[in-house]
Design brief:
heterodimer, A: mainly beta, seven-stranded mixed beta sheet, 11 strands, 0% helix, B: mainly beta, globular
């Protein structure tokens, strides 16, 4: 049974960058699309971006265009999300989640435990 | 981007009674395969979200059969035939046809 294990909590200054990792254990992620989803305190879920291994491409919600970079290291079964130019509104719990297939992001049935990112001066 | 709109935003239900949540998309979610790329997720308090329904009407593994998804194109519904105490949480629809977009969420509580 595959599990997604995320890196620990981060506290960052405004204007800096943060990189969150998501390691797949007990299975592979290379045949599945992976999304990054965030949830600000008391708010709903927001799709940030994802990576589609079939095309070896990443894509992001338009809102994060130019600020987010999503990459994958197949040798270590680890995915990364880097968010730059951080502002207070980026304070949230960030989740990685695995979809049911490798081209679309539907059916995310395996989720990481979440990583808290706090942006504060 | 495709926009998703849920209603109602909150719901208070008596145990054993049915519940229904609506989700509308700003564009058709019908793929050329004939499937609607629409999922339903439940986030229980303090937990990561969990998948309930995928491709519009397919129950995920382990999901009780009191949960059902229906609809097509731009209009979708999640129904709980008999609400139980463990069903409390926030329900989200999500389109996955063009990248991903979540609805605002519907908070379900027990009366």
């Amino acid at each position: 049974q595959v599990q997604l294990v995320q890196s620990g909590a981060e506290v960052k200054k405004p204007g800096s960058s943060v990189r969150v990792s998501c390691k797949a254990s007990g299975g592979t992620f290379t045949n599945f699309a992976i999304s990054w989803v965030r949830q600000a305190p008391g708010q709903g879920l927001e799709w940030v971006g994802g990576i589609i291994p079939f095309f070896r491409t990443a894509n992001n919600a338009q809102k994060f265009q130019g600020r987010v970079s999503i990459t994958a290291d197949e040798t270590t079964s680890t995915l990364y999300m880097e968010l730059s130019s951080l502002r207070s509104e980026d304070t949230a719990v960030y989740y990685c989640a695995r979809a049911k297939e490798d081209i679309y992001y539907y059916g995310m049935d395996v989720w990481g435990q979440g990583t808290s990112v706090t942006v504060s001066s | 981007d495709i926009e998703m709109t849920q209603s109602p935003l909150s719901l208070s239900v008596t145990p054993g009674e049915p519940a229904s949540i609506s989700c509308r998309s700003s564009q058709s979610l019908l793929h050329s395969t004939g499937y609607n790329y629409l999922d339903w997720y439940l986030q229980k308090p303090g937990q990561s979200p969990q998948l309930l329904i995928y491709l519009g009407s397919n129950r995920a593994s382990g999901v009780p059969d009191r949960f059902s998804g229906s609809g097509s194109d731009t209009d979708f519904t999640l129904k709980i035939s008999r609400v139980e105490a463990e069903d409390v949480g926030i329900y989200y629809c999500m389109q996955a046809l063009r990248k991903g977009t979540f609805g605002q969420g519907t908070k379900v509580e027990i009366k």
